[in-house]
Amino acid sequence: MSLKRIAAGAGISLLCASLAVGQSSQGPAPSHPARDREAARMNERITQLSHEVDELKTLVHQLQEQLATQPAMAARTAPAASPPVPAASPPIPAVSPPAPVAPAAGVAGPAPSAAANVPPAPAPAGAAPPASAGVIADLVHGFTVNALLDGYYEYNTNDPIGRVNYLRAFDVSSNSFSLSQADLIVESAPDPANGKREGVRIDLQYGQATSTLQGSPVNELRPEVYRDIFQAYGTYVFPLGGGLTVDFGKWASSLGIEGNYNKDQLNYSRSFWFDYLPFYHMGVRAKYQINDQVAVNLWITNGTDQTEAFNNYKDQLLGLVITPTPAVSWTVNFYNGQEHPDVVYLQSPGPGQTGLPNEQGTYILPIANPPTGKLDILDSYVSWQATKVLTLAAEADYVRERLYTYSPFQSVTGGALYGAYQLTPKIALAARAEYLADVGGLYTGVTQYLKEGTFTLDYRLAGDFLMRGEFRRDQSNRHYFLSDTLGILESSQQTVGLGLVWWFGQKQGVW
What we know:
- The longest helix has about 45 residues.
- A 16-stranded antiparallel beta barrel has the order 1-2-3-4-5-6-7-8-9-13-14-15-16-17-18-21.
- It contains five helices and 21 strands.
- About 15% of the residues lie in helices and about 40% in strands.
- Strand 16 and strand 17 form a beta hairpin.
- The protein is an alpha+beta fold.
């Protein structure tokens, strides 16, 4: 019952009591002791009810004032409604809605209208959001935009002619301030836990590393077409068992333990094996997660370091990734391919070369009796996070190839050992020891046995700025490395360098 009704009921009771008293006192009446006592009690009761009515009126007025102020107080103090947090939140979008911009000082802006202070009316039930809002939300949902800049200065004690460091993948220049690579990575990763099964990734790359990674006309018949696209692939995760992830496009090879982005490596320079094994592939790949410990990889590609196929053979890879504990990861890959072209691309036909087919202005000359010998790569590497500050890793590889199916095999065998120790949150030490036997000259063009040792000192100036000092010695059993005199070669080269790596963006973990 409301307070107003309580007060009204009390007033009616008081009125009835007053009428009763008035009726009982009408006309003269003889004095009677019992009746006098009853009248006195009635008067006392009326007085008490009057006080109660006055108190109730005061209480009603106070409560009415409080009720009048409650909506404003609720609007100021009520917490904002929060959307439910998904089990695995997507990365923060890299593109945020623009904040309102105030007019510059001295510049008259439009006067605020009354409607500006009125909240928009709620949309009718079932009404769809504006089309533009949906397009923008879909565009930025789950995307990360990331950038990396990698530069170095290195000095080769051989003082080689042309300042050229032999057998280096990225640190190719001596006594020169060099831009190794500038990268832009745009990614929308799949998130099956939240219903997002599709994804896409594009890595654009510029600098010296681009020339290394994109191969040469020996591998890539039209390298200039894809020169700046290091990776570009789309992903879909099929709801099959533990998840079947399928990628289509161009991706960085996972043959060999080392990768492209320096922030994720133990050393600044790359090993002989990184320089020799494939850098990328174009095709389709699938990964099936059998359980928490075992995953299977299957690739079908155009070839090694080939965006466009230059023969009719499709290479294949079968691989296992075994993770017995969170601290240990072991990868085993077997790759089979055919890396000999059956055509030559020409910028213009030569004498007598008429009627050649062409593709986007590039002429194609068939090779008579092209070689069809196969390539086999057996690659295995393991990493162990022994403690929070100690990382150990090892790699072993065996590669063989023949020119024709009846030709003898040429082979490259060897491996590398790695170790890294985090002295402080800002300082770390890393070392690598490596051996490579190039029998038949598959890697270097001549038969030789190579060794190298690398020592790296890391200093992290900020969370996304890494400085790396490095000493490395390369050794061969024959004279192979450049010296300061044309025609004279050395059996070793020593380099001392400083690398600087900056990176930015929301992508977490290894790029």
